[in-house]
Amino acid sequence: MSGVYRQLSALFDLFFPPACPVCLSSLSSSADPFCSACSATIVPLPTGRCSCCALPFPNANSSRHLCVDCCRQAPSFSAVFAAGLYEGALKNALHRFKYSAIVDLDRPLAGLLQNALPPLSGNEIILPVPLHPRRLRRRSYNQSLLLARVLAHNLQIELDSSILERVVDSLSQQGLGAQQRASNLRGAFQCTRRLDGETFLLIDDVMTTGATVAVCSQALLDAGAGQVLVGAVARAPRHQL
Ligand SMILES: [Zn+2]
Ligand SMILES: [Zn+2]
Q1: pLDDT (tens digit, 9 = 90+) per residue, 50-97?
Q2: Per-residue confidence (pLDDT) for residue 223, from 0 to 100
Q3: Which of 24, 40, 56 is the last residue of a domain?
Q4: Could you tell me the distance, in angstroms and rounded to a whole number, from the CA of residue 39 to the centre of ligand 1?
Q5: Residue 118 sits in a domain of what CATH number?
Q6: Parent domain of 56
């Protein structure tokens, strides 16, 4: 950032103090995504979590290993990275981002997710979980695409949101169990072209049971992807359906 830009930015902040996007109290710096009170409610994923799907274990301090479901059947994705648990300010901000069209939250939320990602080679291709065109028309934006755009820009990796499309507008996943979610999504996503062993970083706003990202990852692998990593801003424990 140039000196002039920094000075102008400081002056702008003086006259138009930045506000916390969750509680609207003023922020001490526009570089902070949330105020200190809201930031304090963001709970990082516990050490005790599944080494593949990042499911938090009841004992937060237990060692990292595969959860029962991932042991029983290896998921189609290789690993899940998330900024924190789906609670507190993160839950509140994601809700406003998704349902109240507070699209300015794309940068702070993508910034939190970026901090949770592993080092990348730069050869990955980033893509969002797609929305069905009908739902996209109703909402007017795909919240996961907004996050993927910011991440692609910050990380300087390729974004391709045309590879995967949602061809079935399934029922809402809310309130469904893991089994029902998986069957509800069968055949919902398809790839638009053959792939050639690439590594994909699939972006979602919230990962609940993982059924959606699992079905998307499987569609990518079936089309020839090498591996799929998943990045979600928040990870819900499975009992929070
Ligand atoms: Zn706040
Ligand atoms: Zn797992």
Answers
A1: 999 999 998 878 888 999 999 999 999 999 999 999 999 999 999 999
A2: 97
A3: 40
A4: 7
A5: 3.40.50
A6: 41-235
| pLDDT for 180 | 74
Q: Which two tokens stand for residue 40?
A: 């304090």
Tell how far the Cα of 88 is from the centroid of ligand 1, in angstroms: 10
Query: Are 6 and 109 in the same domain?
Result: no
Do residue 87 and residue 31 come from a single domain?
Answer: no
CA 111–ligand 1 middle distance (angstroms):
16
pTM of the model: 0.88
Contact predicate 156/148, CB 8 Å: no
The answer to whether residue 135 sits within a structural domain is: yes
- Report helix, strand or coil for 216: helix
Q: How far apart are CA 105 and CA 149, in angstroms?
A: 13
Query: Does residue 240 fall inside a structural domain?
Result: no
Residue 239: per-residue pLDDT: 57
Q: What is the pLDDT of residue 151?
A: 98
Q: What are 32's strand-pairing partners?
A: none
Report the alpha-carbon distance of residue 159 to residue 201 in Å, rounded: 9
DSSP category for residue 102: -
Residues of the chain with pLDDT under 50: 240-241
178 assigned to some structural domain: yes
Cα of 44 vs centre of ligand 2, distance in Å, is 17
N residues, the chain: 241
Question: Do residues 96 and 149 share a domain?
Answer: yes
